[in-house]
Design brief:
The longest helix is centred in the last third of the chain and has 30 residues, at 123-152. This protein has helices at 2-11, 16-26, 31-43, 46-60, 67-88, 92-101, 109-118, 123-152. Helix 6 runs parallel beside helix 8 (123-152) and helix 7 packs antiparallel against helix 8. The chain is mainly α and 155 residues long. The relative contact order is 0.16. This is Small multidrug export protein. The chain crosses the membrane at residues 30-53, 92-120, 126-152. Keywords: Membrane, Transmembrane, Transmembrane helix.
């Protein structure tokens, strides 16, 4: 049951594996299974986000109830895309990996793949960059979670 919980948490925007890995470790799931399950859970929605999010957001941006949120998501994606392009130049793949992989607020797979979709980056390169970024974030979160839990003497 714990595997399913962390798998589902890792699919949630903003939470992703940045919340799922520490949760799994705190629940007693071993580090490597938690890492693997959370990578899969975080990566699973990304092809769909890349292929459909931009169209869905454009469709809904002028709707009465959802428009404000959809416009926020479009602006977040465009802003992230501009930052990536300005910073990276020709190294957009590496910039996307680092954007997704370094776990700071406002970054992650959902925002990164949305930016890639808005920038019209190649689908395969975007998914590969997303996978690499998710793996990097997973390593960072696993190492930091183990350290914090050891300090707190949990587990």
């Amino acid at each position: 049951m714990n595997y399913i919980i962390i798998f589902l948490i890792s699919m949630i925007p903003l939470a992703e594996l940045r919340v799922a890995i520490p949760t799994g470790i705190a629940m007693g799931v071993s580090v490597l299974p938690a890492y693997a399950i959370c990578i899969l859970g975080n990566l699973l929605p990304m092809p769909f986000v890349y292929l459909f999010s931009h169209r869905l957001l454009e469709w809904g941006k002028n709707k009465k109830v959802i428009g404000k949120f959809f416009r926020f998501c479009i602006e977040k994606g465009k802003s992230a895309g501009r930052k990536l392009q300005d910073t990276a130049g020709r190294g957009l793949f590496i910039a996307l990996v680092l954007f997704i992989g370094i776990p700071i607020p406002g970054t992650g797979a959902w925002t990164g793949i949305l930016a890639a979709s808005i920038l019209r980056m190649d689908f395969k390169k975007s998914i590969m960059a997303c996978l690499c970024g998710i793996m990097l974030a997973g390593v960072i979160m696993a190492i930091s979670s183990i350290g914090v839990l050891n300090l707190l003497d949990i587990n």
